Amino acid sequence: MKDITTEVKAVNSKYQSVVNKAVNWMEKYELANDQRNIASDNSEHDYEEDDKLWRKWDRRCIKAYDKYLEYMEELPKREQDKVERRFA
Questions:
Q1: Rounded to whole angstroms, how far apart are CA atoms 54 and 47?
Q2: Which residues of 31-68 are buried (b: 16+ CB within 10 A; e: fewer)?
Q3: What is the pLDDT of residue 2?
Q4: Taking the model in full, what pTM does it have?
Q5: CB of 54 closer than 8 Å to CB of 39
Q6: Using CA atoms, how far apart are residues 82 and 19, in angstroms rounded to an integer?
Q7: What's the chain's average pLDDT?
Q8: How far apart are CA 66 and CA 81, in angstroms?
Q9: Which one of 22, 53, 62, 77 is CB 3.0 to 4.6 Å from 71, fit for a cystine?
């Protein structure tokens, strides 16, 4: 079964695997961010940071976004622009 994600074709094929990894980590970030927002909306705590579930998803957001940036730094500017257009 094909993943439902939209593939981003690299301008230069030698960067395709890094582009795929960057896209994958940004999709993980978006999923974690959605879950963090749901946890925030359903929290009974006055501060989000007091909610265990919110902290879990916040940690995942941080990890996913850091990995995304790590892979984006490996790409030339034109490849970065193409990946960023995917999420605009």
A1: 10
A2: ebbebbeebeeebeeeebeebeebeebbebbeebbebb
A3: 43
A4: 0.85
A5: yes
A6: 9
A7: 89
A8: 18
A9: 22
